[in-house]
Amino acid sequence: MLEGRNISKYFGGLAALKNVYFKVTKGVIKGLIGPNGAGKTTLFNVIMGVYKPDSGVIKFKGENIIGLKTNQICKRGIGRTFQIVKPFKDLSVWDNVTMGVLFGRRNPPGVKEARDEALMILDFMGLKGKREVLAKNLTLADKKSLEIARALATKPEILLLDEVVAGLNPTETINMIKRIKRIRDELGITILIVEHVMRAVMEISDEIMVLHHGEKIAEGEPCEITRDERVIEAYLGEKYIF
Ligand SMILES: Nc1ncnc2c1ncn2[C@@H]1O[C@H](COP(=O)(O)OP(=O)(O)OP(=O)(O)O)[C@@H](O)[C@H]1O
Ligand SMILES: [Mg+2]
What we know:
Blueprint: E1 2-11, E2 14-24, E3 29-33, H1 40-47, E4 55-60, E5 63-64, H2 70-76, E6 78-80, H3 93-103, H4 111-124, H5 140-152, E7 158-162, H6 170-185, E8 190-194, H7 198-204, E9 207-212, E10 215-220, H8 222-227, H9 229-236
Parallel strand pairs: 3-8, 3-9, 6-7, 7-8
Antiparallel strand pairs: 1-2, 1-4, 4-5, 9-10
Bound molecules: adenosine-5'-triphosphate and magnesium ion.
The site of adenosine-5'-triphosphate (ATP) has 12 residues, from β2 and α1.
């Protein structure tokens, strides 16, 4: 579904991404992990057209998407959330998601239908009861759910989730993990998820790729990744050795 070859992105002399190859197969939940500054969010930004890579090609469903604008990429079917949540703070939860339906799709419905669809998405994400609350007044967990709801509103075929579990308490974490699985299982949306909470990423992912200093150092099933010496040294530490 989504494939990148030789992706490099420099910020001045700093290589945030160095010749990265990645592939996300339709229907999987793929984890993207690595230490702070490894290049994970930069990869999302390159996929979404926020940054043009200095080299490489990214194909979505077989078509090159490099050079397209973020809104065009969104309308083709790639949704994303932001590591630092970016709701329309002074709009209600319901209006936030309605915006996604109205402005994130190639063929948006009318306003009434958009509001109805937004409500269904809010129900799915457990936010229906808070639909009239202003986004700025939500808890962090609800803000993260809203971030996902607004991305879902754009009808993505693939969803890029950037640290939607980090910062949640244990109960919220369990609920978020369940919801992410339901997005794939019930809505059929492919997922690429960046996450530092290892419990979540190991439980949720079919496969994982690891970035370190902008380079891919490992890729495989969760159990392989936890045994990979380079990954243990660069990121996981001894506690993950079985
Ligand atoms: N717009 C920018 N300008 C300059 N440097 C940047 C920019 N964006 C990212 N960087 C640098 O690129 C590197 C990769 O950053 P990135 O945000 O992709 O890391 P990350 O893997 O998402 O880290 P974290 O886990 O902390 O979110 C870092 O060294 C960062 O400081
Ligand atoms: Mg990041």
